[in-house]
Amino acid sequence: MVVDGIRHQTVEGDGRPYSALKLDLLVLLVPQHDVRSLEPVTDLDTAEPPPNGVGWIRVAAQRWPVFCHSEQLKRLSEIPASRRICAVLGAGDRAFGIMCSAVFLLRLPDPDANPMPEAMVLPGRPIHALALHEGTVMCLSSAARLIAFAQAGADAVR
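Above: the chain's sequence. Below: its structure in token form.
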């Protein structure tokens, strides 16, 4: 079922809850508890964006930076038309938004069992494991890894 660009999916059997953040063709998996809210792009304040960011989002009387990355995890200075959802992620007392084209809610068996191949592991990159679900490769990350990556202004390998 799809509601406002969010696909709600129940996967039978055991598994942990994840949110799949779709950046066009790239799918980032984060623990579902890392997602604090989903906000429409129209709620963004794009005046005076933060360093490496595209704007600000206000949630629960707090103002948080919003970042936008390409499918290769390169910084984007403008929000593509396909990115209509701001997923607000939190790690401890820090939060931030990441612009998504869609968000999927699902349960998966332990994706940590599929660590990144050694040749693909790069310091400072937010992806630490891979998961395969319904023929789609998904990249496992977390709010803490994504905020560190976004604030460092890092770009993925070219």
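Residues 2-152 form a domain with the OB fold (Dihydrolipoamide Acetyltransferase, E2P) fold (CATH 2.40.50.180).
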